[in-house]
Every structure is written in C-alpha cells, then in structure tokens.
Automatic annotation (TrEMBL), chain A:
This protein's record includes keyword Cytoplasm: no
Primary subcellular site in the record, as a coarse category: other
Any one Gene Ontology cellular component term annotated for this protein: cell envelope
Gene3D superfamilies associated with the record: 3.30.70.20
Name under which the protein is recorded: Tat (Twin-arginine translocation) pathway signal sequence
Subunit-level organization: Heterodimer of a large and a small subunit.
Start and end residues of each 4Fe-4S ferredoxin-type domain: 41-70, 139-168
TrEMBL record, chain B:
Any one GO MF annotation of this record: heme binding
InterPro entries the UniProt entry points to: Cyt_c_III, Cyt_c_III_dom, Multihaem_cyt_sf
Highest classification ranks of the organism: Bacteria, Pseudomonadati, Thermodesulfobacteriota, Desulfuromonadia, Desulfuromonadales
Signal sequence region: 1-27
Positions annotated to bind heme c 4: 133
Domain Class III cytochrome C residue range list: 42-147
Taxonomic source organism: Desulfuromusa kysingii
Binding site for heme c 1: 50, 53, 60, 63-65, 130, 134, 143, 146-147
Name this protein carries in UniProt: Class III cytochrome C family
UniProt xrefs under Gene3D superfamilies: Cytochrome C3
Cofactor, how bound (note): Binds 4 heme c groups covalently per monomer.
Length: 312, 173
C-alpha cells in the first residue's frame, strides 16, 4: 500500500473496524527496540524515605496552577479516603497524590507518591490515534491538549491508571496528567517541583541511567534494607520514574504482574476487550465514517508508511 | 589558597587542642545551638538544640558519620574510613549541598569520590537524620513539632486562613 494521508488512514480504519484503530501503535519507534533517549532524565523514588507529609502534592498544585483542593495539603485524613473501594488516584485536579499502605511485612505504614512514570515506551502515547502524546528527549511524556479528542484510549491503556480527564468542557474533555514539569522546569534542566519540595528527598533527580546505577548501589550498600528489585527498571519496557522499597512491591500497591515488554504490542488486544471502547467507538466510527470519502475501503492498512512522515 | 591554608591551620589548631586535652569528642568545640534555615520560606527557621542532642546521643558519629574522630557508625563507610581522625569539615552543610541538582551541578558533575555519589541534599540530610532517629526514639515527628509554618507556608499548603472553604454539603466538625 502506498503512502496514505492521515485523513485517509482514519477513514480506512473506520471501515476496517475497531481493532484497526489501534494500529498506529508502532508510530514513534519499533516495538521493544527503544530504551529511552540516552540522556533522558529520570527520578529515583525511595519509598523507605516517604513520611506522607504531602508537601509534594502542594508543590505540584502550585507549579501546575491546579484548582483549590477539597482539603488542605497538610490534612492526613485523605489517607483514609476510599473511592469505590480504591485508594485515591491521580485526577484532573491532582497530578500527584500520596497514599498510605499497611504492608504485611513491615511494622510501619508505607507512603507512596503516585504520578505519571514517564515510560520509555508509553502505552498512552502508542494508544493515542491523534498523536497527542510525545516523549521528549529530556524524558517527559507530554501531551497536546489542543489535539486531544477526549477518547480515553490512553486512560485505558496506561498500566498505572494515570491519565485523567477534565470535564470542565463537556464538548471537549481533555486529558490531564503529570508532565514532569516539562514546560516550566525540565526543559531548562531543573528538577520537578514535587522533587525539589520533598523534605526527605524521597525522589532523586538525574539522568535515568546514572540513577539506575545509584538505585542498585543503594540496595547493595544497605544490606537487608531494600527488596532486591528496582520497580520500573524493566517493567513495561522501563519507566523514567522508578522505585526502591523495603517491602515486596505488591504490598505497596504496585502491579507486579506487568510484562517486561512495552505495552505497545498488547495494547490493541487489551483495548479490544474493554467495554468502554465498545461503547464509545461506535459513535466515533459513525462520525469518521461520515467524514470519510465515500467508496473507500482500505481494510487493513500499513500504518508505518503514515508514521514515517509524522514529524514529532 | 589562602582559605586552604587557613583551614589547615585551624585543623592543626584543633588537633593540637585535642592532643593537649586528650579527651573524647565531648571536649570538642561545638556550637550549643545551630539555626537551621534552609526551609525558612514555608517554615520559620529551627533553632536546633545541639547541646541537648550531644547529651542524649551516645556517639557523635550517629549524625556526623566519621568526621568527628569518634568512630564510624555505618559499616559501609568503615570500608575506607577508620573514623579516628577528626576532619576539617564537620558541619552538615560543609558536605551536603543545598542544591545538589542545580543546573550547574548536573551539567558539570564534580568529580567527587566514587563512593560519595548519593549524598542527600542539605534539607534531606537534616530530615532523614532527624526524623529517622525521632521515629526510633519517639521524638517529635510532625512537621510543626519542629518548625512553625509561616504565612507563605499556610498559603502553600492551603492551610490556616488559606484553607479551602468548607463544601456546602459536608457536615461541620
Ligand atoms: S505512566 Fe501511563 S500516562 Fe505516564 S507515560 Fe506511562 S503509560 Fe503514559
Ligand atoms: S513532576 Fe511536576 S507535574 Fe509531575 S507530579 Fe511532580 S510537580 Fe506535578
Ligand atoms: S514530600 Fe516527600 S516525604 Fe512528603 S509525602 Fe511527598 S514524597 Fe513523601
């Protein structure tokens, strides 16, 4: 198949069916071959240090000009909140939140800060069919909300349940998530606001590859303190923010069943079984179909030809 | 050069003094109080009662690693340091930089010792040491147990007079 334009591609996909929509997955880089930009920055998060003071949440709120919280940031009652049987999650008004866990294998509670992990091969990016996402050479996974159509693919694809939607505009709900303080700090080489604010230096900012060495050294230098695993070194192809813990990661609420491979390959199948997709896509398809030039039926197209001209 | 010379002289002076007194670290010249103000924007500075902590701590090395000549608390450091010599640099801020990840430092990393590549910032060094110990000995661990919040702090944390308005539907408490 020869090169096709985005419009034709979308049209073809519409005719081709739901699974087809997901194929631009390979657009930015070949699956499994990309291990992050060599000088990409990252953050080493040491869960043993966090005391649950929520200063990082306050810092993010200020830096990202987020709306007023429901409760003050020094209010620890939020740790008892449950939403539909779940601990707090990131929202369109809070790009990072700290949760408390009661691990079986420790006497003390454990606090964990949650935000986007800035994956090396982000599932949010690969699942987005309008290319709203971008992984920058500095290591941030950012998005263009002007391009976002609010389809929620990324929300479903993200293995860490990070992207959230703002419904402030009913017609144009857009994604909101942690951007590694890209615009205001990372771009200039400065550490994110949450990292800088933390009194305990739970988070250490630096080049991802240097921090990975430090993470393993920290395990070695402190025998018996940490479990011998750096969460995010290999998970889903590696994440820009990665974790050290004194308890098995599942006890700190981490999903320990994630593949070592990026989600890229799986995202199609994964999305196909999610009911939300089934309920949302028909409406979208109808829309695309109406836009499509009549009589074209591309069936299964080669999205790579389309990708190569993508000028990210 | 001048500074180095000065430091050397001071160092020698301290050594001489130690030799004369030939006693433990408790004879060392240390400040009774230290004002910690690196966070003094959101919180008032902390006046740290050093003398009291000297009294309740068995060994200066618990906070000062191997620099006070009182041995080595951490096994890992003991691989290189014997800890029986008092160093020129003893104060926290002499080693722990207030801004270790400044743009300057990230672009031109200092060719430091290969084993000293994971030093916490000054702010973190304080908190990790203080809270780490306080948790074990049931010392104060709440933020405001040690430093009072400033108005800027209340604004930042949306607390005090800057607290969010009580939502209409929630019950008062
Ligand atoms: S954590 Fe989720 S939102 Fe963040 S880069 Fe990875 S896939 Fe995307
Ligand atoms: S990196 Fe920036 S946007 Fe992300 S959680 Fe931290 S402060 Fe918020
Ligand atoms: S600021 Fe640091 S210690 Fe406080 S909750 Fe956030 S990560 Fe934990």
């Amino acid at each position: 198949m020869s090169k096709i334009t985005r419009r034709k591609f979308l049209a073809g996909s519409a005719a081709g069916g739901a699974a087809m929509m997901m194929t631009p997955a390979k657009k930015a880089f070949a699956a499994g071959s990309f291990e992050g930009f060599p000088d990409g920055m990252g953050v080493l998060v040491d869960l043993t240090r966090c005391v649950g003071c929520r200063t990082c949440e306050a810092a993010c709120n200020v830096e990202q000009k987020l709306p007023e919280p429901a409760l003050p940031f020094d209010d620890t009652s939020v740790f008892d909140e449950m939403h539909h049987g779940q601990k707090r999650r990131t929202t369109d008004k809070a790009y990072t939140i700290v949760n408390r866990y009661e691990p079986k294998s420790a006497d003390e509670p454990l606090y964990r800060k949650i935000q986007c992990n800035h994956c090396n091969e982000p599932a949010c990016l690969t699942s987005c069919f309008v290319n709203a996402y971008k992984k920058t050479p500095e290591g941030a996974v950012i998005y263009n909300s002007k391009v976002c159509v609010g389809c929620r693919n990324c929300m479903i694809a993200c293995p860490f349940h990070i992207p959230a939607y703002t419904y402030s505009s009913v017609l144009n709900p857009v994604i909101k998530k942690c951007i590694f303080c890209y615009d205001t700090r990372l771009k200039e080489g400065r550490p994110p606001a949450c990292v800088e604010s933390c009194p305990q230096q739970v988070m250490t900012f630096g080049k991802r590859k240097d921090l990975m060495v430090i993470a393993h050294e920290r395990i070695k230098k402190n025998p018996g303190k940490y479990v011998d695993h750096v969460y995010g070194e290999k998970e889903v192809g590696g994440t820009g923010w990665f974790y050290l813990s004194n308890v098995p990661f599942e006890e700190a609420g981490f999903d320990v069943n994630l593949p070592k491979k990026p989600i890229i390959d799986n995202v199609k199948d994964f999305l196909a079984i999610v009911p939300m997709v089934l309920t949302i896509w028909p409406a979208l398809f109808t829309g695309f179909h109406l836009l499509a030039t009549k009589g074209k039926s591309h069936g299964h197209g080669d999205d790579n030809s389309h990708d190569k001209q993508e000028g990210h | 050069m001048v500074n180095a010379g000065k430091q050397l002289i001071t160092g020698l002076g301290v050594l001489l003094l130690l030799a004369v007194l030939s006693t433990s670290c408790y004879a060392m010249d240390y400040p009774d109080e230290v004002e910690l103000d690196s966070l003094a924007d959101l919180y008032e500075p902390v006046v740290f009662d050093h003398a009291m902590h000297v009294d309740v701590t068995e060994n200066c090395s618990e906070c000062h690693h191997h620099t006070t000549g009182t041995g080595v608390a951490n096994e890992y450091c003991a691989k290189c340091h014997t800890g029986d010599v008092e160093m020129d640099v003893v104060a926290c801020q002499d080693c722990h930089s207030a801004d270790p990840v400044s743009i300057e430092n990230l672009r031109n990393p200092q060719p430091g010792y290969s084993y000293h590549n994971d030093q916490p910032s000054l702010k973190a060094a304080y908190h990790l040491k203080c809270l780490g110990c306080h948790q074990n000995v049931d010392g104060p661990t709440g933020c405001e147990d040690c430093h009072a919040k400033t108005e800027a702090g209340d604004k930042f944390y949306r607390s005090g007079e800057f607290a969010p308005k009580e939502p209409a539907h929630s019950s008062a408490h």
